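User: Could you check the structure of this?
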Amino acid sequence: LREPSLYTVKAVLILDNDGDRLYAKYYDDTYPTVKEQKAFEKNIFNKTHRTDSEIALLEGLTVVYKSNIDLFFYVIGSSHENELMLMAVLNCLFDSLSQMLRKNVERRALLENMEGLFLAVDEIVDGGVILESDPQQVVHRVALRGDDVPLTEQTVTQVRKTFLALLSAIKFKSSISLLTVKAHYFRINEYKGIVIASFSPTPTLSHASSLSNIALLCMTVYMITNYSVYGVGS
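Assistant: Sure, the predicted C-alpha cells are below.
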C-alpha cells in the first residue's frame, strides 16, 4: 500500500476550445519541460473534449475535468488518487471563478481577469496540497488580497489586462521568432508571484497595425502565461 500523502494535485489546467493553454500550473516534475507539458495538454484535450464523462485515466494519471462554453478545466492527480478530492478542487475552482466573473465563465472574461485566477488557484492548492474547497472562502480571500494591492500595482495589472484583451482580438497564423523582439521595449515586474510586463509607452488599438508592436505583444503574453507565440495573419 502507498503511504498517504498531502501532495494530491499534480497540475491545474485551463484550455480553450482549440486545446490551447490559457492557464497551467504544474506541482511536480512529471512533465519537466514546456514542450512535454504542451504535448500532454494536447493529448488530454483530444481524449476528453468530445466526451460527457468527468473522469479519465491518461498516461498513468487521474484526470477530472469539466467544460463551460469555450473553456475546459482540468485537475490532475496520480493514478491512485481519490477522484472525489480532485473533483472537489475542480468544483471549487470553477465555482470561485463563476462568482468572481459573475457567472460569465468564458474565455474573454477569464483573460481579462487573469490576476483573480492566479490568486484563486493559490488559495485552493499550494505546492500540490489542497488548502481550500469552499468557493465562498476562496472568493473572500481573493477579494482581501486584491484590496491589499497598492495603486501602482493595480495600474500595472490593468495594463496587463489591456494587453490580453488586445491579443484576443488578433488572429495568428505564421510563426515569429522571439529573437526579433528587443527586450528594452518593456519592463518586467513581479507581484505575488505573477509576472507582469508593461510597455513604455502603453500600446493602444492603433498600434495593432504595426507588426513590431504585435510581435512585442506576443512576447509579453508569452512571458506572462507561457502562451505559444505566433505571428500575424489576416
